[in-house]
Predict the structure.
Amino acid sequence: MTTKLLSKVQKEDISRKQGVMSGIEALDKITGGFHNSNLVVLAGRPAMGCRSFALTCVYNQACAGKKVAFFSDTLTESEILDRLQVIHTILGNGKNEHSFKNQIFINCAPQFEINELRYEVARLKLIENIDIVYIDNLLDINNIGTGSYNMATASACGEKLRQLSRDMDISVVALSSLTRSCESPQREGHYPNMFDLRFGNVLNFYADTVLLLHRPEYYGFKVDEEGNSLIGIAEVIVEKSPNGNADAQIYFEHTGTQWGAFRDVE
């Protein structure tokens, strides 16, 4: 093998091990990025900003030259673009607006089935060579045609999404929700754990990585135990990962609206 070819293979191997970076350094140091053939579940309670966090990652990855597919049956394409524009306003730093938008492929078909999703991902992989896929609401995938949520549908959904990531050799990031358990007065700091996931036992089994988003400020915590301000602070709790578990502290910045972007703490 020539030196040039060997160098190329080594670079590709390093890139593969690192995965597709989120663009948030505190998280990437823990996870090594979103890895190919992995199913990532991202979840949080309402108002934690899961969708804003996912779209921040989408924006960062598109700006880094990655091709990203984003599927949603809860937002329209124009709403997604509006939110990406807000993120660009906060994080852009002179970056070309059209350069990142050309890297993002949005599909807002209502109540898509898993087979339709699989076909569209395969098409985008073949034609555009996409690097990563986001699914706005994991449990809204009508994978067996019933539209009902129960342990059986959650299991079928988790299994098929993990198989999709394996077959396409691509990272699939699926947004999900948490139960109210973490908001119990008995839960210290209202910190969530993987058992708070809706149908958690099933999703934990199929997911390679589980990320939980938490914002202490939302629950009235203004400072931590050491007196440090928690205003604007969010935590990505890495409950499950090939690289181990840890928490990444990041910052939620907004422009006076409910929309915003996440970035590293300065």
